[in-house]
Amino acid sequence: MNQFTKKTNPSEDGAGAGRTETPWVAGLIFKMALIMSIIFAAFYARVHLNDKTEQLAREKTRITEQIREKQTEIQTLNIQLAQLKSWENINAKIRQHNLALHAVNPNQVRYMKRFEGQVAAPSLYGSDTRVADTSAGAKQTSAGGIR
Amino acid sequence: MTLFRSMAIRMALVYILLICGFGYVARVLYTVQISRHCELFEKAQNTYTTRIETHGTRGEIYDFGGSLLVGNMPTMDIIGDPANIYILNKKDADKTETECRMIADFFEKNCENVKSDEIFRRLSRRSFTTKDKDGNEIEQDCHYAVIATGVDYQTAKDLKEKVKELSFHGIAFTSSYRRKYPKNTMLANILGLTNVSYDTFVPVQGIERSLNDAMTATSGSMVYERARNGRHVTFANSRSEPTLDGYDIYLTIREPLQAIVEEELDLMCERVKPHAAWAVLVDPATGDVLAAAQRPTFNPNDRATMTPESSANRLSELALEPGSIMKPFVISYALDKGFVTPGSIVDCEQGVWKYAGRLLHDTHNVGKVPVTEVIKQSSNIGTAKVSVMMGAKNLDTALRSFGFGQKTGIQLKPETSGIFRPLEKWDSLSVSRFCIGQGIAVSPLQLARAYCMIANGGYKVNLRIVDRIERGDDVRVMPVIRETKSIFANPTTKKMITDMMIGVTEAGGTCTEAAIEGFHVAGKTGTAQKVINGAYSNRYYASFVGFVPAENPKFVLLVTCDDPTVGSRYGGSASGPTFKAIAERTLKYMHVQPQLTKEQWLAERSAAQKALHERKVREDALVQARREERDRQLKAQQAKETTKRTGTSVASRPASGSKSNTIRR
């Protein structure tokens, strides 16, 4: 049944017709309002999130900058440390303070026994236990390191 | 009707106009959105998109234990923006000039090597003329004027604060870094150096050059959409390519050993005043270069100290005639293949021998001696005779098996492979000269490697100076390349040649100065004439090479003096004491226990001395007896002749050692 037939039907005129129109408009307004509020909420959430993201990004930039600065300071200190640890500098200090230092006598040195399963650290004193390949087949390494 | 008609016409016109209008809009939209979309989108994007390049740092160089040898020193460059200074001073030329002068004076006072007038000149240049794409001259604003580069980070930070306080306009501080060599001259020739060209490091020599690819950082980039204030819009599209720092290099060098070698080399230079000197310490088991030093050297932090003499890497680039330090290779091969035994007697012809039409001399007269004495007394003639006995082919095989004529495999570029002619190009003299280190040129590293082969029992090992490269968790260890098959077929060869070389540092040997209390030192001296302009000169390379402890070597050490000018020119006297000093300190550093107690060692020394004395007495007696025998024979012969002529017998010739008043006729 279309609108035209509905309007011309006398049995549907009067109070009954008014009652059917009101919920339809209210429903539409409600639905529109709901949709609008959802859109608004989504929009607001997006803006809020963006703002939060921005804030965090700024914070990140600030912290990154701080880290970079600290790393720069560490690098500078590392260079200074290396300069202080150089033999040239140590020798100068020994002479300056007239320190009667001498190398240790090998007889004074005792080595701890390595426990089973303990891995040897690379030795500063010569051959270590590195595994390696060779051009002519398997390689042999000399035992050494911390004994 | 007319009205109606005109109405219809007007309506039709409006429709047509509307249709045309919509058509035009549709066409423009089509052009903008579809046909020129990419081009216009890119144009738009460029206005709000920023691309920044990020640069990593170059890898650093450490010794084996992680002590920094080459690092990156953070610095800052101070840049001025002349056009901006002018604009921020409201385009007032006088005010701008005053500010530029103040800036220039400020930086002259606070920075090194900065001239006020020069800075003022740069800051005053607000624009410059350039050419556009079509070749027309155009005026452009100048936004870049260097005030100072490589300013220390802390100084630059303080300056930044002061600039802020003084409210100078248009001054920017940009981070950069430069290579710093905190140990100054230590290992300078091996580490090398870099130059900087347009913010890029250009390696010049040494490890910096040979491992440049590994150490170079990979640049990254970040493309992001920016807001009006230039900030990164984090919720918009962005993409980035990561920046990778270069690999850090860990060398096989032990810094304490390097310091010992450098210090002793300096002392040797003071003592014998050579033209140049070098020393290299190698682990014979792995081929690890533990220390390598040379003089003269330079300080990479101060380019004024660089000269062609001081910057050359002699250890890998120099090829020199080694002299007598070649002898053990020939003798060991002869022993291994059974051509001789340690006791085989060789006639050293009392110091002069003619071979292939040319005379060969020894520095001191040696008669018939066992092969052991040939090495101990470093007889050229004895070695040449053994070599001739072996033949040219065997000599060629012997020297090539010790790696001569080949590179050592060390990670240094350039590296010479020396000069060692192929067998077919040898002349008749070669067999008697190559064996004593003449006519062949080798690098100090080749020599060190060849001695490593003697020390480790004949296993060919490539030299290593880079132990590993690291970048975070990415660790790559450079393998030890060592052949599994010994070049010695006879397992006793190593012991035989080592015993002969121990004799060199014992009484009667050519280098008793290198003997170390409590240890057997196996070594060999070498004194080689320098070839200058194609001829042998009166200048010498005085070398000593050896390994300690002889039976279980912890290291091979080569010390060479190029043209010692004070004291003896012989390898034993010039380089021997330095070898001893370095070896003693190295043994202590390595905590190597002495093999013998002081008493045992002294007893061995005095026994060797006694044996030498007895041998000399025996030899003198033998020589005396021979001389007397010869005189007696001569006398008898002369008497016979006189009797034949006159029939009377008279003394015709003075006896050996008799005084000049003996009756003559």
Sum this structure up briefly.
Chain A is built from 3 helices and 2 strands. Chain A has about 150 residues and is mostly helical.
List the helices and strands and how they pair.
The complex is a heterodimer of chains A (147) and B (665).
Chain A: H1 3-8, H2 15-85, H3 87-96, E1 133-134, E2 137-138
Chain B: H1 2-35, H2 37-48, E1 49-54, E2 61-62, E3 68-80, H3 82-88, H4 93-110, H5 116-124, E4 127-131, E5 137-141, E6 145-152, H6 153-166, E7 171-180, H7 188-191, E8 193-197, E9 200-205, H8 206-210, H9 212-215, E10 220-225, E11 238-241, E12 248-251, H10 255-272, E13 276-282, E14 289-295, H11 308-311, H12 314-317, H13 327-336, E15 345-347, E16 352-355, E17 358-361, E18 368-370, H14 371-376, H15 380-390, H16 392-401, H17 430-433, H18 444-455, E19 459-461, E20 466-471, E21 474-477, E22 482-486, H19 493-504, E23 522-532, E24 535-548, E25 555-562, H20 571-574, H21 576-589, H22 598-646
Parallel strand pairs in B: 2-12
Antiparallel strand pairs in B: 1-10, 2-3, 3-6, 3-7, 4-5, 8-9, 10-11, 12-20, 13-14, 13-25, 15-18, 16-17, 19-22, 20-21, 23-24, 24-25
How much strand content do the residues of chain B show? 15-25%
Number of strands of chain A: 2
Largest inter-chain interface?
A-B, 47 and 54 residues
The rough form of chain A would be described as: elongated
Strand order of the largest sheet of chain A: 1-2
Report the radius of gyration of chain A as a whole number of Å. Answer: 43 Å
Largest sheet of chain B: 7 strands, mixed
Order of helices and strands of chain A: HHHEE
Question: Mean pLDDT score of chain B, rounded?
Answer: 88
Quickly count the helices of chain A.
3
Helix content of chain B: 25-40%
Radius of gyration of chain B from CA coordinates: 40 Å
